[in-house]
Amino acid sequence: GAVVSQHPSRVICKSGTSVKIECRSLDFQATTMFWYRQFPKKSLMLMATSNEGSKATYEQGVEKDKFLINHASLTLSTLTVTSAHPEDSSFYICSARDWQAAGYGYTFGSGTRLTVV
Amino acid sequence: AQKITQTQPGMFVQEKEAVTLDCTYDTSDQSYGLFWYKQPSSGEMIFLIYQGSYDEQNATEGRYSLNFQKARKSANLVISASQLGDSAMYFCAMRELGGGADGLTFGKGTHLIIQP
Question: What's the mean per-residue pLDDT of chain B?
Answer without folding.
Answer: 94
